[in-house]
From TrEMBL:
It comes from the Bacteria. It is an enzyme of class 4 (lyase). Keywords: Lyase, Schiff base. GO terms for biological process: carbohydrate catabolic process; deoxyribonucleotide catabolic process. Residues 1-24 are annotated as: Disordered. One of its GO terms (cellular component) is cytoplasm. Signal peptide: none annotated. Belongs to the DeoC/FbaB aldolase family. DeoC type 2 subfamily. This is Deoxyribose-phosphate aldolase. The keyword Lyase applies. It holds the Pfam family DeoC. GO terms for molecular function: deoxyribose-phosphate aldolase activity. PANTHER family: DEOXYRIBOSE-PHOSPHATE ALDOLASE.
Length: 335
């Protein structure tokens, strides 16, 4: 049986091409909602611990889920030694993330599979936009003094505006962690509102840097405040913290997305980032997304994965699915 034949777990009828979602318009800061926010740590830990044992997919089904994951990857390079040549190679990989012979063997050769976006520093936005012209793949720019987020506020806003002017369709901002750690929710709300306005038509992903926020309750509250202020996505990490994306933090954030949707009707996206490099790990994130939020949140307009080396391992697993043999990791370079 081909991957195409069993694609229903990944692309059911209700998830076929759809109209663009209305953007999250935000709402007034609700301090009462924040003060009532709790996270049951032991229950959350039990929920996450049981996930791998309760959910498993093999063979064609696993290949289908991994191909879906490819379409949600924000293929990323955020290194101090980045060059325009590296960014352009990454863009070429984003347009053809899986070898054509593998797609053909799985009955998916005509699907035009690409990654969800390319994510780069502002300096390389214009080059990435040029390299991706006509592909439909958006460029995301990290901004607001990434990764520490400690630049002056007016500088952060100008950086956002410059990236949008260069063609970035998405902006990944970093919040000021101090606002969370000191419980200054009004300051966080005001900051996020300013970022949203500066983005204009570009969608904004709010990076919480969850590894710096100390508690799951802080993560939950920061998630809510950013959504109240109009974030289109909430994102775990810059990838530069000591602890980045984890299933436990993901669960806390997804439940706030669900609560916000129930209260406002707006669908906010989720992006785990940092340390996600193995295909088997991204499957658990996908399962958690589907179980907590529903099938609609598995599409790239609501789910992104910030990663650089994950794509290589997915392609390696897909080659094993087709040939029965594992190849060396370095045969599947990201760009």
């Amino acid at each position: 049986m081909s991957v195409q034949a069993i694609a229903s777990p990944v692309r059911p009828a209700e998830a076929q091409p759809h109209a663009e979602l209305p953007r999250n318009e935000g709402m007034p800061l609700d301090l009462g909602w924040l003060s009532a926010t709790r996270v049951n740590l032991s229950a959350a830990e039990r929920r996450v611990a049981t996930l791998p044992g309760r959910r498993s997919v093999k063979r064609d089904a696993q290949a289908a889920w991994l191909l879906k994951a490819v379409t949600c990857i924000d293929l990323t390079t955020l290194s101090g030694d980045d060059t325009e040549g590296r960014v352009r190679r990454l863009c070429a990989k984003a347009k053809n993330p899986v070898r054509q012979d593998l797609l053909d063997a799985m009955g998916m050769g005509d699907r035009h599979i690409t990654t969800g976006a390319i994510c780069v520093y502002h300096r390389f936005v214009a080059a990435a936009v040029d390299a991706l012209e006509g592909s439909g793949i958006p460029v995301a720019a990290v901004s607001t003094g990434f990764p520490a987020g400690l630049a002056p506020h007016d500088v952060k806003l100008r950086e956002i505006e410059a990236s949008v002017a260069d063609g970035a369709a998405e902006i990944d901002i970093v919040i000021t962690r101090e606002h969370v750690l000191t419980g200054n929710w009004q300051a966080l709300y005001d900051e996020m509102r300013d970022f949203r306005r500066a983005c204009g038509p570009a969608h904004v992903k709010a990076i919480l840097a969850t590894g710096d926020l100390k508690t799951l309750r802080n993560v939950a509250k920061a998630s809510l405040v950013c959504m109240m202020a109009g974030a289109d996505f909430i994102k775990t990490s810059t990838g530069k913290e000591g602890i980045n994306a984890t299933p436990l933090v993901t669960l806390a954030m997804l439940r706030q997305i669900r609560a916000y949707h129930d209260a406002t009707g707006f669908m906010v996206g989720y992006k785990p980032a940092g340390g996600i490099s193995a295909a088997k790990d991204i499957l658990n994130y996908q399962f958690l997304m589907k179980e907590e939020l529903g099938r609609r949140w598995l599409e790239p307009d609501l789910f992104r994965i910030g990663a650089s080396s994950l794509l290589a391992d997915i392609e390696r697993q897909l080659e094993h699915h087709v040939t029965g043999r594992y190849s060396a990791f370095n045969r599947h370079a990201a760009g």
